[in-house]
Amino acid sequence: MEKSLLMERKSGFNQWWGQWWPYLLVLAFLILFPFIAAMTIGSAAVPEGSGFIEGLLIRANSGYAKFWQGMIIQMLILGIFALSYDLLLGFTGVLSFGHAMFFGTGGYTIAILIGRNFNWPFGAALAAVVIVALLQSLIFGMLSLRVKGVYLAMVTLAFAEMFFILAEAGDFRQYTGADDGLHAFPVPAYLSATVFRTRFYYLALIFFLVVFLVARRLVDSPTGKVMIASRENENRATMIGFNTFWYKLIAFTFAGVFAALAGALYALYNVSITPATLTTLKTIDVLAMTIIGGIGTLAGPVIGAVIISLLGYWLERWFGPSWTLIYGLIFILIVIFLPYGIIGTLRARSFRLREGWKRWKDLLAGK
After folding, report:
1. What CATH architecture applies to the domain 22-43+52-278?
2. For 188, left (φ over 0), alpha (ψ -120 to 50), or beta?
3. pLDDT bucket at 170, cuts 50 / 70 / 90
4. Please, what is the average pLDDT of the chain?
5. How far is CA 298 from the centre of its chain?
6. Which long-range contacts (CB under 8 A, 24 or more apart) does 171-177 make?
7. I want to staple 64 with a disulfide (CB 3.0 to 4.6 A). Which of 25, 41, 169, 261 is the partner?
8. CA 314, 298, 310: angle at the middle one, nearest 5?
9. Which residues lie across from 273 on neighbouring strands?
10. Sign of CA dihedral 163, 165, 170, 176
């Protein structure tokens, strides 16, 4: 009996380790990265008498160590945003063209509340971001999820445009900055990404971990299974007794709150928020991240966010203003040769190189 129980526990651990070891390796790298960067590419001179850890922190906030921490912070923020969109499109089958509405609203909410007009503490402002996003996603989810397909996409686009117009309106310039946006609002000194880059790095990492684990728990739960069933065949899910509307609303709500948190981090990191964060182009960006990484994989959209961040940085350095053309070509190649995205294709082991090459030739031939 004891031997059987021991074997069962060992089998369970092996199964858990086989599923989570890639994530744990990535997490270990992210935790250690500021210190690795400090020892290799940090450029600050460490004052005499400083302790080892203090010296590492000084070097971590200097030179390329500071720069690459900033790059990873942006990747983590975009990763949260992309992960939130994957809950909608990847696991529930809801195509939204207005997801940037939550991202921009989260950024504006925290910028307004900690700004000079209200001067709220960070904790209270962050709680307000969650409450505003929760109410916003519930209200607009209940209104938009009544329709399906292209009509749903158009309704979400209309809601996002409404918030974009409100952000740009001169009537609210005192709060939103109108078309100029809000810049240099007073971020608490201890959260300044300029002064304490490493501290903000770990804050973004904690946010990302919490969002990823909550999303993972959601999609693995019975509720998540119904969301997936709704994506695959909503009529059949309805026939066996599930009210798919409420399950889609749950996904819509979680996605809205996660996107708002990403927007709040974005505003804090850049100490700036503009109406551009509410536009359809922002939603198209997160849609591209999700497609590149792999729809319905959670890890895939995060990989997509990393790839797009790095591509944007390197291609702009190499090709200047024409970098978007090269990016577009790379995106087309990924869609043609990796039909399920990077992670999705790896999991499906469906590298359709021959079919992709044929589609590429047909595209060039104008067929």
Report:
1. Orthogonal Bundle (1.10)
2. beta
3. confident
4. 88
5. 10
6. 174/117, 175/112, 175/117, 176/108, 176/112, 176/275, 177/274
7. 41
8. 5
9. 182
10. positive
